[in-house]
Structures are given as C-alpha cells and as structure tokens.
Backbone:
C-alpha cells in the first residue's frame, strides 16, 4: 500500500492514573491513505483524542503498532519523535494555540524556523499560506487582533507551513461559529483537493462530519463503523 | 526569532516583569551602595588608624617591643640620615613614648605620654588639626601638654589648667612634672587617643634624662602605601640590626581583622540578596512557565525541541536581568559618585564611631572591578535560578499540556 500514510494495528491505550484502569483504545486497526479527508467521530470518551495523539506521536500506545509514512513511530526516541513531528505532521488544535506575542505571519514562519529554512523562503511560504487561508490582509495582526475563525485559519496555515505528510486537527471547529466553521472547512477542503493534503479530524461537530469524505466512528475505544461517504474529487478549474 | 519570542514573552505580563526588574535594580543599587559604603568605612578606618595610630611604618628597638619601658630607647643618629635620604619617605616623626599617671585636683589617670617634635609630628599625624580647644605645643605656656577631650573631662581640667604627670626617668626613678594644658584634642581613634598626651620632646628629654636623639619610636609616612612592604624590606637592610621595622598591618593587626569582618558581613548581605533574587526569579519564571503550559506543550508538539524550550526560558531570565542590571549599576554608580567627595555625614553617631576608631564622615568608594563582579554575580545567579523553571518547562509532556485545552 504505497499510498498509506497512517497504519495502526491492534492499537491499545490504557490509562493507569487511578486504581481502575481506563481502556481508551481497545484494538484499533486503521489505515489512512494519502489525500484522505477523514473525520474520526464518536461521543466524548470514545478515544478520538487518544487516537489522534498516538497518531501524532504525542502519546505512546500501551500495545500495538503504528506506522506513519512507513516508520514505526513507537520505536523512536523522544527527541526523534519531536523531529519526526516537525517534519511530518501538521497540528491544528481546538484552542488555536497561536503564540500570542507573534503576528500571524511570524506564527506561520516559526514552524519553518524550527526546520531551519532560510528567511526568504520562510517569508514567502508564510505569506502564500496566509493568502490561501484568506488572511492576506491580516498577516501583521497578532492573535488577539483576530477573530476565533481567523485565528484557526492561521493555525491551519501554520500546520501546513512545514509541508507535512498530513494534518491532524483535534476538534478544530469546536470554538467557531457557523460562518467561521464553513470558511475553515472550505479552506481545508480546497487544500485537500488542490495539494492532495491529507486531513484527519477528530470531531463531533455535525458540520465537519457532513463535509468529511471518510467517517470513522469510534465507540468505547473500538472502531464501530468506517465508511467512505465521498470520493476525493480533483479540483475542477 | 527565539530571541524575539523570549524578549516579547517577558512583556506579556508587564507588571510582573517590571516588579522583578525593579527588584533587581534596587538590589544591585543596594549592593553597590552598601559595598561602597563599607569600602568607605574600611578606608576611613584604615586612614584614621594609620594617621593617628600606626603611620605607615614604625621603628622601635627590639627591647622596646618586648617591654615598653623608658630604658628601651634607641638613638636616631644612624636612622635619621637614612630616612632623610630615602625618596620613599615623605615624613617622619621621632617620639619618646612612656607610661605615666596624670593628676588634676579631682582625679588621676593612666596615660601614654608622648614627647614629640610638634612640626614633624604634625606632618605625620596632623595633630594640630585635631585640636578643638586651645592651641598646640608651640604655646607660650611653660611645659605645655595636649590631652584628649575625654581625659580633660575625667580630670575636670580646662585650657591652662595645671596637671601633674608622674613617670619613670631613664634611671628608673619616679619623677613628677607639672604641665599646663595648652590644647584639648578630639578623640578620633577611640580609647587609643583618649590616653595619649603630647608634650614637646625637648621638655620630656630633660625630665626623663634622655639625651638628644634618644627616642622610643619613629613614625614614618611613605610615598606609596601599597608598596609599604617593599619599602620596609629595603629599610631593614639599611638600619642597625637591633631595630625592628614594622608596617601598619603588623603594628595593628586589628586593621586587617576589621576589614575582613566587614567583608564577611558584606558577603553575608550579598548572599542574602542573591538568595532573595534566586527565589524572586524562580517564582516569576515558574509563574510565566505554568501560565504558558499549553503553549509550551504546543511548541513541543509541533517540533520545538527541549533544548530550545529550555534556552528560551533561560533567555527570558537573562533579558529580565539585563534590563535590571544596567539600571541598578547606573543608579549605584551615581549614588557613589554623588556621595564620594562630600561624604555621608554620620555626625549623630560620631561618638560611637570614634570609639571604634571610625570617622563620622564616610566617603563611599568602589573600585571599577567590583561593578563587574556584582553584575556577573547577579547574571550568573539569575541564570542558575532560571534552570529550575526551564527544567520544569522541558519536563512537561506535550500530550498532558494539550489535554488542558
């Protein structure tokens, strides 16, 4: 499966924070291919965020394997994981998590700075991405000068800045109104179609679910349903 | 950009940063000022003791140092020509120094009676400048004597009062002589000055049957106090072997002791300040780190390695310190500069200070290298204090931090 970006096998995650173990994932087998626009849905506590964190290399599974771009990330050390995330994964968080002291442009550039890209290249890509998410006129605004929707669009631009293999978005629309949600989804869908960028969301927002091309339903740490609802369509120009 | 982020981060909570900067500024100012004041006090104490008590060098016979008896004099005939020729010698004052009892109609006290050449003594110890009542030993009075204010009060005598001094002459016989108080001098060197009484050397030679040139000590001031040991060594080779040449540190070991005790107190104060600074910085930086827990988690999630996160927190501390240090240094330098020449007048405590040999006007002074030492100490302390918050920042797990969303 040369197009497979993410592959999990018998993924388990058990939290032992209290005397009673909590089984967040109980054997998840999953394969996500390049260019998919996937929503992982399910009620609270179903294991969506845990699955996303493990796929993103932020957390380790208790059992099972996970390959991202053909690499078994459970075998990587902490510092190798940081490097891996920097090169391969774009993150969009529920609360945007922009650096408040930097402008939109600097926030997007910052990720490329970590990749040690040269200044001109950084600047050009950051401006292009911000234009792509419709914020060409707000590049010098700080997060507190932007609306929630605009901040999340900056976060999307930031996630894409490092040219990742895929973008993980954890409840990206949870704090957005309908218009902002629609705008954000338009942008992400366009990027998916234009650049064949893979998106994996965790969400229980129906507006996102309605736009997803593949819906994976998690219940009690297991995949209860996995269905393709829309074929990826190439952008018609 | 890391520098830019670190710099901007410290201004996220300007009040908190300003409070820390002000604390650092005031702390450094206080350190510099207290250091300068202490140095001024030590300098004053040393100058005072050197001028009034030890001079730079003193010459005695070996026997006199073993027993301060009148018979243990030496002859200046082989000494003074050497001193007069030596370009390192600024002034010298030969003295007869004997113990005696001074009596007035109301009291009797023990004294150290010094026979001096008024002009020569004045050049070494500025004796005339300490006269607060009456005049010096060039007075027209018959057998003039200068006594301290404390002694005058205890004897209940005034200018021109008659006092009688009993002492041994060179043959070991007790003799007595009447003197008129020509002047009263201020105590500037504690109890040491209190018991000193001065008379013209010629008068005392006659009364003690010592011959011209027979003295118990010669006090010398040299051109360069910092090279006094070198001069002492040279002089030793030029003078007869029965004479002991001592520098001021050997004459009064308490000078060094005093200096080292004050330095010790100062070190304790500096340590307390540094500890306060350490806790201030840890507190501020920990708050800054904990407030940004999610953000730091995000930075680590998106690929900022631990070393960079660590460095960023240390950098923020360095920036905070870099703002406070120059301000404190400038304020401290201005304070020292503003008070150095005029001095800080502690007239209110003059008696107490004089009792311990200190002057009541303190001229703060601080060598340039101490500013550097203080700045570096604060900077190193700040960096060390930032290690714990920085470690705290890097020990967070991105997944835990992000779970706090």
Residues:
């Amino acid at each position: 499966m040369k197009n497979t970006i993410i592959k999990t096998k018998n993924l388990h995650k058990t939290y032992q924070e209290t005397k009673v173990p909590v089984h967040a994932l109980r054997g998840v087998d999953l394969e996500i291919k390049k260019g998919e626009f996937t929503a992982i849905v399910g009620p609270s506590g179903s294991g969506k965020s845990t699955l996303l964190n493990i796929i993103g290399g932020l957390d380790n599974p208790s059992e099972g394997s996970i390959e991202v771009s053909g690499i078994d990330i459970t075998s990587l050390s902490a510092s190798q994981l940081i490097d891996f995330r920097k090169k391969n994964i774009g993150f969009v968080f529920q609360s945007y998590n922009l650096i408040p002291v930097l402008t939109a442009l600097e926030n997007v550039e910052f990720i490329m700075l970590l990749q040690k890209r040269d200044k001109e290249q950084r600047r050009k890509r950051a401006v292009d991405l911000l234009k792509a998410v419709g914020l060409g006129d707000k590049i010098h605004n700080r997060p507190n000068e932007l609306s929630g929707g605009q901040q999340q669009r900056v976060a999307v631009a930031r996630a894409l800045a490092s040219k990742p293999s895929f973008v993980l978005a954890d409840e990206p629309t949870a704090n957005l109104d309908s218009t902002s949600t629609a705008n954000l989804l338009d942008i992400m869908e366009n990027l998916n179609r234009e650049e064949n960028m893979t998106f994996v969301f965790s969400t229980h927002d129906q507006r996102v679910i309605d736009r997803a091309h593949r819906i994976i339903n998690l219940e009690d740490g297991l995949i209860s349903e996995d269905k393709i609802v829309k074929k990826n369509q190439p952008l018609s120009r | 950009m890391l520098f830019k982020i670190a710099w901007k981060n410290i201004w996220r909570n300007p009040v908190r940063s300003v409070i820390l900067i002000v604390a650092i500024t005031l702390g450094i100012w206080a350190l510099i000022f207290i250091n300068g004041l202490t140095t001024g006090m030590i300098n004053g104490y040393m100058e005072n003791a050197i001028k009034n008590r030890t001079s730079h060098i003193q010459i005695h016979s070996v026997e006199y140092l073993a027993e301060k008896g009148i018979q243990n004099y030496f002859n200046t005939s082989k000494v003074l020509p050497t001193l007069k020729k030596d370009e390192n010698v600024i002034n010298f004052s030969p003295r007869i120094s004997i113990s005696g009892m001074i009596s007035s109609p109301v009291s009797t006290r023990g004294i150290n009676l010094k026979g001096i050449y008024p002009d020569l003594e004045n050049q070494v110890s500025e004796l005339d400048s300490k006269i607060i009542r009456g005049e010096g030993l060039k007075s027209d009075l018959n057998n003039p004597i200068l006594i301290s204010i404390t002694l005058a009060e205890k004897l209940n005598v005034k200018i021109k009062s008659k006092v009688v001094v009993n002492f041994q002459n060179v043959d070991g016989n007790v003799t007595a002589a009447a003197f008129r108080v020509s002047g009263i001098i201020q105590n500037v060197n504690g109890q040491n000055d209190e018991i000193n009484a001065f008379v013209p050397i010629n008068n005392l030679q006659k009364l003690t049957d010592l011959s011209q040139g027979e003295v118990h000590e010669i006090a010398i001031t040299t051109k360069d106090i910092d090279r006094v040991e070198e001069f002492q060594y040279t002089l030793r080779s030029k003078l007869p072997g029965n004479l002991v040449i001592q520098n001021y540190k050997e004459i009064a070991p308490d000078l060094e002791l005093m200096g080292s005790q004050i330095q010790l107190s100062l070190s304790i104060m500096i340590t307390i300040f540094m500890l306060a600074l350490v806790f201030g910085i840890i507190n501020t930086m920990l708050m800054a780190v904990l407030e940004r827990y999610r953000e730091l988690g995000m930075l680590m999630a998106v690929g900022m390695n631990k070393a960079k996160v660590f460095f960023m927190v240390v950098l923020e501390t360095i920036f905070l310190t870099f703002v406070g240090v120059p301000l404190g240094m400038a304020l401290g330098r201005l304070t020292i500069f503003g008070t150095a020449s005029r001095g800080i007048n502690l007239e209110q405590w003059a008696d107490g200070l004089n009792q311990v040999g200190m002057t009541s006007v303190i001229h703060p002074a601080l060598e340039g290298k101490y500013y550097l030492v203080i700045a570096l100490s604060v900077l190193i302390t700040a960096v060390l204090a930032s290690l714990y918050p920085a470690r705290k920042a890097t020990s967070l797990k991105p997944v835990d931090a992000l779970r706090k969303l």
User: Anything to note?
Assistant: The radius of gyration of chain A is 17 Å.
